[in-house]
Amino acid sequence: MEAIANGAGPEAGTARPRACIVDDHADVRQWLATKLESLGIEVCGVAETVDGGLVTIASEHPDLAVVDNRLPDGRGIDLCREASATQPGMTLILHTGMISPLEESQAYEAGVTRIALKSIQGDDLLAAVEEFAVRRRSAGG
After folding, report:
1. What angle, rounded to 10 degrees, do the helices at 101-109 and 76-86 form?
2. For the whole model, what pTM was predicted?
3. 69-102 pLDDT, tens digit each
4. What is the pLDDT of residue 141?
5. Which residues of 15-47 are buried (b: 16+ CB within 10 A; e: fewer)?
6. What SS3 state is found at 139?
7. Domains and CATH numbers, the chain
């Protein structure tokens, strides 16, 4: 989370992919930030709520946003819908403990690229993030 600490933003000119994390649990945010950084992905912003996530995503313009679906002020699906409308090229990973078929459909309609189910080890989320990193390297950026 070096970029957050030193104030670097989109104008810093880094070639590394950039990500925002939106999750209301500090330990999850820290764990995920460490995993993203280990994959060469710069964590450019974190937020705990839908409103905070929308502000952070709008100001940072990340390549990737990992969003918890259950946030204190609403659903991550709704955040994804608003964020994808303004930044259609951004990869959105929705992180959730469980999801109904209706919510799954709503998530993909909202622009979610991948749904990652929560687990103790975070295997599905790590696989989704690693897929993003591989696609970025393959695309040359």
Report:
1. 20
2. 0.84
3. 999 999 999 999 999 999 999 999 999 999 999 9
4. 62
5. ebbbbbbbbbeeebbeebbebbbebebbbbbbb
6. coil
7. 16-138 (3.40.50.2300)
